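Researcher: Structure for this, please.
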Amino acid sequence: MLQVCLNGARNRGECSSLPVTPEELAAQAERAVAAGAEDVHLHPKDADGRDSLEPGVVGEAVIAVRAAVPKHVQVGVTTGAWAVSDPLRRADLIRDWVVLPDHASVNWHERGAEAVAGALLSLGIGIEAGIYSGTDAPRKFLASPLSSRVLRVLAEVTDTDPRTAVATAAALLKELGEGLAVPVLLHGEEGGAWPVLQAAARLGLEDRVGLEDVLVLPDGSPAADNAALIHSARRLLDS
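Model: Predicted structure, token format:
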């Protein structure tokens, strides 16, 4: 499975083509799926361009993107602590969601991850368990009673050095072990994004690419949009 991560916690100052509004997210999701993406991850943003978990903001983004992609394409959102630092408040906001995404990411190194995950499970929303390299997330996740109830593990390689990112990915996967009962989506960031994507393909793991993770194509040239990144990823995966 190849997921497109449309925008992340970035802002327009970092990338002029970053989709922020529901309409922009929908347009880029549609083009990315046409280019070969099979799943969508996005960060709903408020009028100031900041990540938001407010029910109205989340609902508008999910409705717009769902209308733009085929029905079989799942749409997910973030629950990152940078949007709302208090995990109990995050859980309360989630329980107030009226329009439900298919899945949502929960970063297991963040305080209160299980409370946030529990709120999602209570609504029937799938959990992408974000396991960052260089954190205690692998240990916490493997010890969690919720580890077998997540939709997938997002193995997130935070090493942005293309020379070492693949080794960091291997170390992260070793920490997670071979006995996981759920699929693993392995991905990198910035300079590590493309090497880690190729490593994921070699290992037969799910992967993702999009403006959240990287702003350039494999040759180092700027990516026009998410569809350009997905197109390049498909060429690499199919070669």
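Researcher: Any notable elements?
Model: The chain has a mean pLDDT of 97. The domain at 2-238 is CATH 3.20.20.70 (TIM Barrel).
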